[in-house]
């Protein structure tokens, strides 16, 4: 049916008055596809001029336009004898009752509500064109004085015109109602979806709250257990502290006993051996004299071990007194003390420009004393000894080192090097008690640092150590440290 009507009006001239290019192109597209011949004017004046030159079968005009709006254009068309029978359709939103009154007043034939659908638009156009012959034959004029919205309106329109206008208005209202019902159904569906989601979310929150309560209860139990463990730990720490305090007292008592009770017999043994050597050596055979000498050497070595052991124990009980100390000055003091031990030796001392650090000067000087004394001892068989004291940076950390070209040691025993009474050489090769490096490690650890050694047998040794956070200045890398010479 729609197709046959469309063919019936194929080529019929329709004039469009629309100032929006987008709206005009859309409207023209709908009508052209249906077979109508379309002319577009940008405002009311252009549309009136176009209609005067070529009478259209239908005028479709926007209401709001510059220069001449849709109401004025419609009224003008209806006032001209040559154009008054041309149907005029107003495009409007029908937002107020006043729009209908104005449409009746200007003689409009129909309303098309914006926004419109293509199907609805074409059906209205075809309806008006189908019924235009009825308007031509309708001669009775109706004049009505109407007061609306505080204004007087005089409406002159054919009955068919009024009927079409009211039908189009009703049609638009029906379309709005249908759209509202669609929106209502959509809103109802959205509401049901939201309610379902609210129910789901409420259930999820309930489950989450239940789980949270369980977790809180577990957390409270865990906190209570931690509290009990802390109390037990504090009790054990207190007990352990008391035990350590008692052990320290016993250690102090043992140290006192060692320093007095053990040294006295050693002194007596040494004194009697010395007296025998002095008074009766002429009457003793060489073998007896050798044995007495071995007794003296043993008591002296035992005395040194006791002294070293007491010094090692004393370090743990000492409270450090940190202050800025120039390391080169500490090394000079040690070298002065080593002069008797190194007298007559060819020793090249290479001392770099060391930093000043925050440390306990006495303890750090003891570190250098032990390391340098070892270096002097283990280079004894070198025709020309080279002993180097310098600093470098390893992995961004300042490191001090003492290097020599002496006897060295087997690197596989490096882990035993800093243990008390651990020696990698026999007394026949190099004398010692094996406590010096243990003392070095204790002092370095008290400063928060670490100590390690690198060596090969017969190729000398290098002792590295750090002073932890006590170091306050970053040392520079010396030429000797980089080259390894």
Tally of DSSP β-strands: 14
N-to-C order of helices and strands: HEHEHEHEHEHHEEHHEHEEHEEHEEH
Inertia-based shape: rod-shaped
Q: Work out the helix count.
A: 13
With strands numbered from the N-terminus, the spatial order across the biggest sheet is 2-1-3-4-5
Question: Can you describe what's shown?
Answer:
The chain is α/β, with parallel strands linked by helices and 485 residues long. 56% of the residues lie in helices and 16% in strands. It contains 13 helices and 14 strands. A 5-stranded parallel beta sheet has the order 2-1-3-4-5, with helices on both faces. β1, α2 (21-33) and β2 (37-41) form a beta-alpha-beta unit. α11 packs antiparallel against α12 (436-446). It is rod-shaped, with a radius of gyration of 58 Å. It starts with a helix and ends with a helix.
Which helices and strands, and how do they pair?
Layout lengths: L1 H7 L4 E5 L3 H13 L3 E5 L2 H10 L4 E5 L7 H10 L8 E5 L4 H10 L3 E4 L4 H13 L1 H6 L4 E7 L2 E7 L1 H122 L5 H32 L5 E4 H16 L4 E5 L4 E4 L1 H18 L6 E10 L2 E8 L31 H11 L4 E5 L5 E5 L13 H5 L2
Parallel strand pairs: 1-2, 1-3, 3-4, 4-5, 9-11
Antiparallel strand pairs: 6-7, 8-10, 11-12, 12-14, 13-14
Helix pairs in contact: 3-4, 4-5, 8-9, 9-12, 10-11, 11-12
């Amino acid at each position: 049916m729609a197709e046959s009507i469309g063919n019936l009006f194929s080529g019929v001239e329709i004039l469009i008055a629309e100032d929006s290019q987008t709206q005009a192109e859309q409207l023209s597209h709908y009508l052209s596809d249906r077979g109508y011949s379309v002319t577009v004017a940008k405002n009311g004046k252009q549309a009136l001029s176009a209609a005067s030159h070529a009478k259209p079968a239908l005028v479709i005009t926007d209401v709001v336009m510059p220069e001449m709006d849709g109401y004025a254009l419609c009224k003008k068309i209806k006032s001209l004898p040559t154009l008054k029978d041309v149907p005029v359709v107003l495009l409007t939103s029908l937002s107020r009752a006043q729009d209908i009154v104005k449409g009746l007043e200007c003689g409009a034939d129909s309303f098309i509500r914006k926004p419109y659908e293509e199907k609805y638009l074409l059906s209205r156009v075809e309806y008006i064109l189908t019924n235009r012959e009825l308007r031509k034959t309708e001669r009775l004029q109706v004049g009505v004085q109407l007061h609306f919205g505080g204004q007087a309106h005089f409406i002159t329109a054919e009955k068919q015109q009024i009927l079409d206008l009211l039908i189009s208005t009703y049609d638009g209202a029906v379309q709005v109602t249908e759209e509202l019902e669609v929106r209502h159904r959509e809103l109802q569906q959205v509401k049901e979806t939201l309610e379902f989601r609210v129910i789901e979310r409420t259930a999820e929150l309930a489950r989450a709250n239940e789980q949270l309560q369980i977790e809180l209860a577990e957390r409270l139990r865990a906190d209570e257990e931690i509290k009990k463990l802390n109390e037990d730990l504090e009790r054990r720490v207190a007990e352990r502290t008391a035990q350590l305090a008692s052990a320290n007292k016993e250690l102090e008592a043992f140290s006192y006993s060692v320093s007095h009770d053990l040294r006295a017999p050693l002194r007596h043994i040494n004194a009697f051996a010395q007296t025998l050597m002095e008074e009766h050596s002429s009457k003793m055979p060489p073998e007896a004299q050798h044995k007495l000498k071995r007794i003296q050497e043993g008591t002296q070595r035992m005395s040194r071990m006791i002294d070293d052991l007491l010094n090692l124990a004393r370090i743990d009980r000492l409270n450090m007194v940190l202050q800025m100390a120039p390391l080169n000055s500490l090394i000079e003091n040690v070298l002065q003390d080593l002069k008797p031990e190194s007298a007559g030796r060819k020793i090249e001392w290479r001392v770099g420009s060391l930093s000043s650090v925050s440390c306990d000067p006495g303890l750090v000087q003891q570190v250098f004393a032990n390391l340098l004394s070892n270096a002097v001892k283990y280079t004894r068989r070198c025709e020309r000894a080279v002993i180097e004291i310098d600093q470098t940076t390893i992995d961004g950390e300042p490191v001090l080192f003492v290097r020599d070209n002496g006897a060295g040691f087997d690197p596989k025993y490096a882990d035993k090097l800093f243990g008390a009474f651990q020696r990698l050489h026999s007394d026949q090769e190099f004398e010692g008690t094996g406590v010096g490096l243990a003392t070095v490690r204790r002092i370095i650890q008290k400063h928060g640092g670490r100590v390690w050694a690198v060596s090969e047998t017969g190729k000398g040794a290098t002792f590295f150590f750090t002073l932890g956070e006590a170091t306050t200045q970053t040392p520079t890398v010396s030429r000797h440290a980089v080259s390894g010479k």
